[in-house]
Structures are given as structure tokens and as C-alpha cells.
Amino acid sequence: MKKTSRGSNTVNVKIIISLIVAFVMWIYVIGDQDPKNSQRYNNIDVKIRNEQVLEDKGLVLANVLETSVDITISGRTSVLYNLPWRNFSAYVDLSSVTEKGSYELSVAIQGIPDTVDLENVSPATITVEIDRITQQNREIQVDFVGELPQGLQLTDHTVNPGTVVVEGGENVLARIQKVGGTIDMSEREEGFSEVLTLRAYDDQGQEVTGITLDPAEVTVTAAIGNNYLLPVEAIVTGTPAEGFQIKEIQMTPANVAIISQGPTPVEKIETEPINIEGIQEDAEVTAKLIIPNGLISASDLETVQIKILVEPIETREFSVSTLEYRNRPEGLEVASSQGEQNVVVQLSGGKSIIQALGQNQIQLYVDLTDAVVGENQVTLQMDELEGITLEELEPTQWRVVLEEAPEEVEEE
């Protein structure tokens, strides 16, 4: 048997010990010169993956409660120093979502190399709200703002098409108060057609986003006309009870603003017929306005309040001593008349009118158009008085004697 020399064993032991010492020294140097460290990266945007999967299931992403995360990684200082951190990305995957509701999804981080460790993600989950996709048909509302030039007014407008299909999450659509837009009328002087981009608004007037509108635009056609202020005339039928008459007809309003595309074809606006048959006391009625074709009520006024004032009829007698000779033939003059006899005049009318009537308002006359030289019997007449009826004149005939007027002598 061959024996190993004692000196050879000693050499081997020394080599092994040297290797161990070298390794320990290497570990020490590496740890001291390139230590392990941690690094934090903030505000990494969270992307959404597989959103198309939601659409295939009739769902839609309503909102994301967190949009970024912070991460902490650890590794050797030299590795961290040269780390391509711009390649880091974060995402949540929606492929597991199956129905409407609120979900907390884990945040996954990409771009972390194998030479470092991902220690922390904050927040580790992201809350997403999932809504069910639905559709609604909505009427389009157009708001006209701004003042037209004086004397002009919007008479009519049409929206083509008049409805829009709104698509989006159920919760979002529930917030929509109206769909439409605004058109400025300032300085417009004639009708127009204009393309209007549609938007949806909530009850606070804030625009609602995250929806689709079909169509996204509509055509608004507006007509502008002239504005006229016309008096209202009450049309009455029938007669009051015997011994009564209409004192006054009051209307509220007395005038109505009317819009016409051109010059107005009428000078007044009439009411529907009001039956006053047998009336003997004041009455108040609501009457519909009859707006002729082609005209529009500027204030959408359709009716007026009419107050009918009734009063009793009274008869009063006057004694009149003066009269006029009208249409005296040329070359003739009145030689004499019936004398100093007064004429008894009997008049009737509403109480308020007849009591306010003065004798000086009564004008009697005879018409001498057909009179000749000599004695003439002519009929007594009276000028008409508004609201007054002539019941009787006594006498009815008047004697007038005419003679030729003396010729005027020219002075030399």
C-alpha cells in the first residue's frame, strides 16, 4: 500500500483554506461596494386590458377609482442605477368581469427584470365600476339665446331628426336631463338652417360624458317674423234683457303681440263669439282668441279675460229752444219760423250716459235743401249722439218761411 506523504496533505489543506478565505473576502467586498437596496417609483399609470370583452357581454366600464400606483423594488445598487424604469407599466384585466357591479381587481406590473425583486404595489388593487349598456330615445331640445333685433321674433323652428338614440351605462343615462344644444340668435334678421352638435346635460346643466349619440348632429331650421301689437275686439251675439244695455266691455289684455312672416293682413284680433242674450248684470268670461292662419301669438296667448258691464236703460226729456237751418238754397233767407216754441226731445240710453247728458249737447236742425220761397213744412231732426236713442220729438214738423234775399248794392 502506497503512503501519501505528510507534506502533500499539508499543501492541500492550505489551498482549501485559501479558497475559503478568498470567497469570504469576495463576499465582503461585493456587499460593501455594491450593496442591496430598495427603490420607489410613483404615479405609474394603470392601463385597462380587455375592455372589449365587456362590450361583448353588454357591459361598459363606468369609472376607475384609482388611475395610478406606486411600486417598490429591491436589488443591487448597480442594477437599480441602470434599471430601465420607463419600461415599467401597470394594468388591470377585465376579462373576469361577468356582470354589472363594483370590482376590486389586482394590479399587475410589467417590465420588472429578473435581476430585481418587486417588493410592494400601492394600492395593490383597483376598484372599477361596471355598468350595463343600454339605449334610450330622447327628444332633442334646442335653446335659443340672445336677443333678436327689435320688431323681430322667432316664429317657429324644426329639428331634423327630432330624436336621438343615446347609448351608455344605465347609471350614466339616468343622470341625463336633456339632449340638445344652444343657438345664438343675436343679430339674426331672417330665417336660417344650421347644423347643431348634440350634447347631453344633467339637471345642473353639466355635460354628461361617456355616452354615444346617434346622430351626433342635427339640422335646426328656424323662421323669424315681424312682431305686431294688435287690439283685441270682443265679438258679442244676442241682446241684453229688456230695459238693459251694455255699458262697457273691458278686456285683459286689451292688445296681443302677433308675429307675421310679412306685413300683417289684419288690424285687430277678434275673440270667439260671446253670447249675451238676456244678460242683466255684470259678467266676466274667458274667450278664445281667433288667430288668423299665417299669424302666431308671440307670447303663446290663447285667451283673454272679458268683463261685460251692464246698466239699465233710462229715458229723459229735454226742452230745446234752438235749432239750425241747414242747406238753405242760394239767394233765399229765412223770413220767419215757427216762433218761440220749444221742442220737447225725449231720449233714452244707458243710465250713466243719459244722466251725464247736457242740453247743450243736443243739436236740432231742419234740412232746407228742397225748400222754396214762401211757407215750408220741414221735418225736425237731431244729430246722433253715441249710445243715445231718439224716442220722440214734439213737434215733428217745423214751419219755415223763406224769401228772396235783397240784392247787395255795390258802392261806387
Commentary on this structure:
It comes from Alkalibacter rhizosphaerae. The chain crosses the membrane at residues 12-31. Keywords: Membrane, Transmembrane, Transmembrane helix. The chain folds into four domains: 36-123, RNA Polymerase Alpha Subunit, Chain A, domain 2; 133-226, YbbR-like domain (RNA Polymerase Alpha Subunit, Chain A, domain 2); 234-312, Beta Complex (RNA Polymerase Alpha Subunit, Chain A, domain 2), CATH 2.170.120; 321-404, RNA Polymerase Alpha Subunit, Chain A, domain 2, CATH 2.170.120.30. 12% of the residues lie in helices and 53% in strands. It contains five helices and 30 strands. It has helices at residues 6-33, 51-56, 77-81, 170-175, 351-356; strands at 36-49, 59-64, 68-76, 89-93, 101-106, 108-110, 117-122, 125-145, 152-160, 163-169, 178-184, 192-197, 199-201, 212-214, 217-233, 236-237, 244-252, 255-260, 269-271, 274-275, 283-290, 295-297, 303-320, 324-326, 332-337, 343-350, 364-367, 374-382, 388-394, 397-404. Strands 9, 12, 15, 17, 18, 19, 21, 22, 23, 26 and 29 form an eleven-stranded mixed beta sheet that branches.
Brief summary:
InterPro entries: c-di-AMP_regulator, YbbR. With 412 residues, the chain is mostly beta strands. It is built from five helices and 30 strands.
